[in-house]
């Protein structure tokens, strides 16, 4: 993969398979992305991003290698500050591939990132979990395992995620091993590795190599999520991980994180411009480490209550940049992670949770994004993964995947009209019977029956039905097969790494 | 208003006022409509609509006047069947105005229907109401009054609606008088009159004339909703009302009502084509009664569970035609009512209710529609208006009205960056302080505070907070002023009409 763009045009439709319960195959959208902004507005935002990079600049803390790479590429490096003449960063991004695959352990689950492909993923990063039986509590490795299993079982999530929840009962300096092991053995979908420094990233890559072998020299099998310390700062812990993944040719997602009014201006157009500047700089660094390294243009932004300063999600002011940022990424010519999918600030899985989540998800899906992070489970601004919300969100994910299939317009049901006519019911027509099974998406827990039936059955709200649902799905989980010698090699590697240093708990 | 298009180009921006608590003034969207289908697909749908009208035809039951009007216009009338050569119906629609106002009793609430104007309205037609205190029950006139008052109080609903709930404690043959009186006196926003036959429609018009006087000769002050008995049937009760409103130059909305698989084919493209055919025929009839009569192209369609036959709302398969039908209406050149706004099949105001409602609302708003019916209150597939759901939906309406304002792209916050820099917080910048008050929409009942605070306050779900909210709003309601002689004239008219016939209860 040295030089050039070896990730491009691989895979294609070869990975396509008929839908089955744990794999839809690749999802391709057939409805156009929404064009929120016109090209003159997009031009203006690009110019403002260049202005930020030239006049304000970025800072790289604790990463002399990164500073040296930028200096060599022509940037103006002064201490930790890096400034760029207009257009320089964009030109450095030009070698990032427009299209690539994330190869899964089961090839049927390999995903493609580009164009009209769409990938949904579970939530990321919550220190807490909650369910209706046990309430809110710190997340453990057992919770981590459960969410990996629930994700593996869902046909609506095409990616196993990363730090789905924080396994707080495992030492902080060793939990990355358990998380990567869980992704590699409890799931056979693509996944994310650790980003808590270069060493943990390298451990993640080494473990993946025990499973995927030398094919990793030629393709990406994993992804690292590099958060920007917005505004305009990259931390050495993160860029160390970035450089490890890039060096290994694995996918790097650059995620600016801007809450308007705090980590950037309160106005949407500025959130967009700053996100664009920050994402481009991270992408440029990947290319300086290894030309052709596959990247994802990330965006994570939202709003604050300007009464209380609390973070808000699913707001109108957050939906707008979500839609515009996918336009910016398409201009840059790289795949984009838009959103926050189903994100909310609600403290429980109620109507607020679903209204906010659905708004965030609609803006994300309409944007034409390639990866939707946090598509299931998120509550409380990401502090909590909810088992019930996870099941509730999956119904919405399924509906969204149906919606992006669009409308078949190649034929009309003329015979159905010939069979019926004005005032008659279409239920028994040949056309209806032919389309009956597949016409409409069937949610798992939404109910549409009469009030009386629902009342007699105990007036269960959606979260209560979701409680039944996730347990039933978990009960059916089966660990995907893995070669015993590979499993042993992984366990040996982990034992070795664990012995390397003392446990750390904070 | 005889001949020509006198409703066009009136009003313009003259009605604009600064936002205040009970009136935002006119809402104009600044974000583009979503273009789901390309022009070749839209062409194909128009051709299929023509095919339906030529080969299958429409039926008009119990309305010889309508049949005669169509015969005189060149249609092929055979008994109750009316068929049209391709293009005929579309050409009959050509005199319908592209733009008109619905003049409100308080001019500040006058709305414009066309182009980028947007009007949100409460639910319509529920026989039941529910609230958390008293539970589910038949709706009464008192409930009707309460929802008119809640609508009047909301800055997010620009129209008082019609049969917001069925006042089941008033005789069926007289309740239209009470409903129109309530709209005319408890509200000063535009409203809908009765459509339960020509006589009730004329009563509604006569009552409006007692308030608006002769200005009704030159403008529309009310709207009648003409449901189609889909598939492809107009009932004489409805078309009688249609002709009364059209003759009086008042606005007529034609509302096909198609649940795919029952009142039309199960496939979306056919739901679109049939809606288009039915809507055009209704609009054509208004123009045959009175050229230039203001119309709204309606669409009301949804899906069924193909397991149980129960109606489903907010589904992916329903969102797609919602977006396409606004495109069809724009082609025809008339304002469009898209949706169902916040509609759901859920039996309570839970997460399902808000997820489905939000999906339906997003597709409606993205479509570029002009009128959003059922934007607040709807539960149980429209059987129930919920006081709590009403308050919950209003938060979403407010957010949507913010979203359609789009992104201001004319300037960037360069000074904010000059004041701060990498790694610094933007909260105290001049830019943030300047934009602080108006930067973000503030919902009334959504909460974003920490879990601990929420838990200590009793773990209230959104519907519980909504219960407090609607009572507090209702407590602040004040009846808008009305001339005492006008009020007396309305009451006298109603007494006279009530004395005309015996009470009927079904």
What would your notes on this structure say?
The structure is a homodimer of 506-residue chains. Helix content of chain A is 40%, strand content 14%. Chain A contains 16 helices and 21 strands. Chain A has helices at 39-56, 64-72, 88-92, 141-153, 175-186, 198-212, 236-247, 268-289, 316-332, 351-366, 387-403, 414-419, 430-435, 451-456, 462-475, 484-499; strands at residues 27-28, 58-61, 76-78, 81-83, 100-102, 111-113, 117-120, 128-131, 135-138, 191-192, 222-227, 233-235, 251-255, 257-259, 295-298, 300-304, 311-312, 336-337, 371-372, 378-379, 384-386. Chain A has a five-stranded parallel β-sheet. The longest helix of chain A is centred in the middle third of the chain and has 22 residues, at 268-289. The two termini of chain A are 38 Å apart. Residues 1-22 of chain A have low confidence and may be disordered. Chains A and B meet through helix 1, helix 8, strand 17, helix 9 and helix 10 of A and helix 1, helix 8, strand 17, helix 9 and helix 10 of B.
């Amino acid at each position: 993969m040295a030089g050039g763009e070896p990730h491009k045009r691989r895979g294609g439709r070869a990975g396509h398979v008929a839908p089955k319960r744990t794999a839809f195959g690749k999802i391709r959208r057939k409805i156009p992305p929404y064009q929120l902004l016109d090209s003159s507005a997009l031009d203006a935002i690009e110019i403002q991003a260049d202005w930020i990079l030239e006049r304000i600049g970025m800072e790289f803390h604790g990463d002399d290698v990164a500073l040296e790479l930028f200096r060599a590429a022509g940037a103006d490096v002064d201490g930790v500050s890096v400034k760029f003449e207009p257009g320089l960063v964009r030109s450095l991004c030009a070698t990032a591939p427009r299209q690539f695959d994330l190869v899964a352990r089961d090839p049927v689950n390999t995903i493609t990132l580009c164009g009209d492909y769409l990938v949904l993923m579970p939530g990321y990063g919550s220190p807490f979990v909650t369910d209706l039986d046990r309430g809110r509590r710190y997340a453990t490795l057992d919770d981590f395992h459960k969410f990996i299993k629930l994700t593996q079982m869902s046909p609506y999530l095409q990616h196993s995620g990363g730090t789905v929840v924080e396994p707080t009962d495992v030492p902080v300096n060793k939990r990355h091993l358990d998380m990567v092991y869980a992704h590699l053995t409890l799931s056979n979908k693509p996944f994310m590795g650790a980003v808590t420094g270069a060493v943990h990233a390298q451990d993640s890559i080494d473990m993946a190599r025990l499973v995927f072998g030398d094919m990793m020299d030629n393709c990406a099998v994993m992804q690292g999520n590099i958060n920007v310390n917005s505004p305009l700062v990259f931390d050495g812990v993160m860029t160390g991980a970035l450089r490890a993944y890039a060096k290994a040719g694995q996918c790097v997602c650059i995620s600016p994180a801007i809450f308007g009014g705090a980590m950037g201006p309160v106005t949407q157009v500025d959130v967009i411009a700053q996100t664009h500047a920050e994402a481009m700089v991270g992408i440029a660094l990947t290319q300086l480490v290894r030309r052709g390294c596959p990247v994802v243009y990330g965006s994570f932004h939202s709003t604050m209550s300007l009464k209380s300063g609390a973070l808000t999600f699913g707001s109108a002011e957050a939906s707008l940049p979500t839609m515009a940022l996918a336009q910016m990424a398409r201009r840059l010519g790289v795949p984009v992670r838009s959103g926050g999918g189903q994100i909310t600030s609600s403290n429980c899985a109620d109507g607020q949770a679903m209204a906010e989540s659905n708004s965030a998800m609609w803006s994300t899906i309409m944007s034409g994004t390639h990866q939707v992070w946090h598509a299931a489970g998120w509550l409380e601004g990401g502090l909590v993964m909810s088992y019930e919300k996870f099941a509730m969100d999956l119904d919405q994910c399924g509906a969204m995947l149906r919606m992006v299939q669009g409308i078949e317009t190649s034929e009309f049901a003329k015979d159905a009209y010939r069979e019926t006519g004005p005032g008659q019911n279409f239920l028994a027509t040949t056309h209806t019977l032919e389309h009956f099974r597949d016409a409409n998406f069937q949610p798992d827990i939404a109910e549409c029956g009469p009030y009386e039936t629902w009342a007699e059955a105990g007036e269960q709200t959606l979260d209560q039905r979701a409680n039944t649902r996730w347990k039933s799905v978990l009960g059916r989980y089966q660990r995907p097969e893995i070669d015993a010698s590979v499993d042993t090699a992984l366990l040996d590697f982990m034992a070795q790494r664990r012995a390397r240093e003392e446990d750390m708990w904070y």
